[in-house]
């Protein structure tokens, strides 16, 4: 596992990046926060400089265990946690499963679809329809086409053909990570939807969304309905990649939560 540290504040925080990203994606947010915190970020399995997932068990369990290992190294409980997309689902899981270790939890568009699927039976078929190109490419073993489709759904920066070739290769080489995520994100492999578990996460929580994102608001709403102490905010002119494209706006929203925790 590879991790990085940004900032020099006396308050430690853990940051967990999105699928196909890396720990360095948090630099802009850390810079925007100045000396408020020291941000500890790690590369997820198959990402950045961390090793590849060995395929044993459930990948989300491995990603969560890595986060706990970073928290052990920080050796200060409780701490603040922020996550983006897939990383936000790990942050949420930490808050539910290890509430005594989490001072506050901030989540930018967690892609934990299981609560919304439980609340709205029409969402699952719509999600399957909208991601059909990705699934077809994955089934065909065409990882480049799958990465292109994934970027078309979740990316809000340059078009695929305008992304540098090295970055496109990085994304295609790691696209299986997205498929391996489904057991938790869609099927709730950790059983977080078991009645009463969300109540454990009573610390201050923040759900952030970009106004330009496709599914963020209903997914955030489904999660918020279950959390006992949560605020929500929507950032105008921001898409799914907000922590990278608009780090100042995300930092401003997170700072309000930090002041409450």
TrEMBL record:
Protein name per its UniProtKB record: Alpha/beta hydrolase
Single GO molecular function: hydrolase activity
Domain called AB hydrolase-1: residue spans: 16-247
Record organism: Tateyamaria omphalii
Keyword check for Hydrolase: yes
SUPFAM superfamilies recorded: alpha/beta-Hydrolases
Any single Gene Ontology cellular-component annotation: membrane
Transmembrane helix among keywords: no
UniProtKB keywords: Hydrolase
Highest taxon in the source lineage: Bacteria
């Amino acid at each position: 596992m590879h991790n990085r540290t940004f900032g020099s504040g006396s308050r430690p925080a853990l940051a967990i990046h999105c699928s196909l990203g890396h720990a360095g994606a948090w630099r802009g947010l850390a810079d925007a926060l100045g000396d408020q915190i020291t941000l500890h970020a790690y590369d997820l399995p198959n990402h950045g400089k961390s090793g590849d997932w060995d395929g044993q068990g459930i990948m989300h369990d491995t990603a969560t265990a890595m986060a706990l290992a970073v928290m052990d190294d920080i050796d200060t409980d409780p701490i603040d946690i922020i996550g983006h997309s897939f990383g936000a689902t790990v942050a949420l899981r930490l808050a539910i499963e290890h509430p005594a270790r989490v001072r506050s939890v901030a989540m930018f568009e967690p892609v934990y679809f299981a609560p919304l699927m439980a609340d709205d039976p029409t969402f699952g078929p719509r999600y399957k329809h909208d991601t059909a190109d990705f699934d077809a490419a994955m089934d065909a073993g065409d990882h480049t086409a799958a990465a292109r489709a994934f970027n078309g759904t979740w990316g809000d920066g340059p078009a695929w053909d305008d992304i540098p070739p090295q970055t496109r290769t990085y994304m295609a080489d790691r696209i299986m990570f997205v498929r391996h995520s489904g057991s938790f994100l869609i099927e709730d492999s950790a059983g977080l939807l078991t009645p009463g578990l969300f109540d454990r996460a009573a610390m201050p929580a923040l759900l952030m969304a970009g106004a330009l994102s496709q599914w963020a608001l209903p997914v955030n709403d489904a999660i918020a309905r279950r959390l006992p102490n949560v605020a929500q905010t929507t950032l105008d002119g921001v898409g799914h990649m907000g922590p990278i494209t608009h780090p100042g706006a995300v930092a401003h929203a997170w700072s309000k939560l930090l002041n409450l925790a």
